[in-house]
């Protein structure tokens, strides 16, 4: 009697269990069919909107198009989330190393880029003799004062030619070049060279300031370090010898500007730093790095860089010590015109800057055409 009742109970349990499973399966199948019918209605609406005619059936291509739209919609939502995060970080691109950018302990004070050309070996040797330390001294300068110094040059239009090979050999000897693989070294491409220099420099070193000088400029690094420390409280500083000037619309003349019509009836450039020597703070250099593919290039380097600064909240700093004057922290190899002015400045520098005495006499002789 007990065994029969137990068998009846087991049979009832199995029957109940199968009923529940069947019920759930029916709901699942009904739900899928309902979802599929909704998709079919949506796809037919898409076809009506696209062709104006209601289709008799929904084929495989229609389904793939629908699922592709769903994937694209999901990806769009992800991109919107990434964009919101980028806005909160100041539109910092994914290739910027955030740890490197925020690590102040490993940050240098300045990166100095000395613009040079293939045929300027004599100028580079003169700069090395006068104010750039060599070998171990160059590394000592980087460690003690946090100053990186490199000659900046692009590639030859004829890749791998003798000019490039000479630079490679010179770099092996001195280890003081920053070679811009994305730039073709030409005199009319200096604006692009500036953009490439700041992009590569920011990617290579994290520094508070990025400095550009020509290879005809003799710089007092100690005075430059003092000057940069005095601007450490200005995170958006564009420092230089600020000037304006006439826009030259006549083709064939020196400093011709092919986009002269953009500068209005007055044909005057906006205020900008002279191209021979200027300084950008870290945030401005990073701005060029992040937006380098969108920055417009005018005919000249200094005006191009000045135009990049116009739409930003930037401190335009006119610094007399970066101009050619008695308070300057360096001086140029001046042309033979204005000999008296050139001579008086060189005499001043030889009397004031003891470690520049040799440079001073060299330039005195140059001013006098000796």
- Rg to the nearest angstrom? 34 Å
**Beta fraction of the residues?**
15-25%
- Report the count of strand segments: 9
In CATH's first tier, which class of the largest domain applies? Alpha Beta
CATH topology of the largest domain: Spore Coat Polysaccharide Biosynthesis Protein SpsA, Chain A
As a percent range, the share of helical residues equals 40-55%
Order of helices and strands: HHHEHHEHEHEEHEEHHEEHH
What is the typical, i.e. mean, pLDDT? 77
Count of DSSP helices?
A: 12
Largest sheet: 7 strands, mixed
Q: Supply the helix-strand structural class.
A: alpha/beta
Report low-confidence residues grouped into runs of 5 or more. Answer: 91-102, 334-370
EC number: 2.4.1.-
InterPro entries: Glyco_trans_31 (IPR002659)
Family: Belongs to the glycosyltransferase 31 family.
GO molecular function: galactosyltransferase activity
């Amino acid at each position: 009697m007990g065994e029969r009742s137990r068998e009846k109970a087991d049979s009832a349990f199995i029957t109940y269990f199968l009923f529940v499973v069947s019920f759930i399966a029916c709901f699942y199948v009904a739900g899928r069919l309902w979802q599929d019918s909704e998709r079919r209605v949506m796809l037919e609406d898409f076809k009506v909107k696209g062709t104006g005619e209601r289709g008799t059936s929904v084929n495989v291509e229609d389904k793939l198009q629908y699922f592709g739209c769903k994937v694209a919609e999901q990806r769009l939502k992800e991109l919107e989330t990434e964009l919101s995060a980028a806005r909160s970080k100041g539109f910092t691109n994914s290739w910027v190393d955030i740890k490197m950018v925020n690590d102040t302990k490993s940050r240098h004070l300045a990166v100095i880029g000395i613009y040079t050309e293939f045929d300027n070996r004599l100028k580079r040797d003169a700069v090395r003799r006068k104010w750039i330390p060599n070998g171990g001294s160059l590394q000592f300068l980087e460690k003690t004062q946090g100053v990186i110094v490199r000659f900046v040059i692009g590639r030859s239009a004829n890749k791998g030619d003798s000019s490039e090979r000479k630079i490679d050999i010179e770099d092996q000897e001195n280890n003081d070049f920053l070679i811009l693989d994305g730039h073709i070294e030409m005199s009319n491409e200096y604006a692009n060279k500036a953009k490439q220099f700041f992009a590569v420099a920011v990617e290579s070193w994290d520094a508070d300031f990025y400095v550009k000088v020509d290879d005809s400029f003799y710089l007092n690094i100690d005075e430059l370090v003092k000057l940069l420390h005095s601007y450490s409280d200005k995170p958006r500083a564009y420092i230089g010898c600020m000037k304006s000037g006439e826009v030259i619309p006549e083709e064939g003349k020196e400093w011709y500007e092919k986009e002269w019509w953009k500068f209005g009836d007055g044909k005057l450039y906006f205020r900008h730093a002279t191209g021979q020597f200027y300084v950008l703070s870290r945030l401005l250099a990073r701005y060029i790095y992040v937006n380098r593919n969108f920055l417009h290039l005018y005919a000249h380097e200094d005006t191009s860089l000045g135009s990049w600064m116009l739409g930003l909240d930037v401190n335009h700093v006119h610094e007399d010590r970066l101009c050619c004057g008695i308070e300057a922290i360096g001086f140029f190899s001046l042309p033979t015109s204005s000999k008296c002015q050139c001579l008086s400045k060189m005499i001043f520098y030889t009397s004031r800057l003891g470690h520049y005495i040799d440079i001073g006499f060299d330039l005195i002789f140059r001013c006098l055409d000796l």
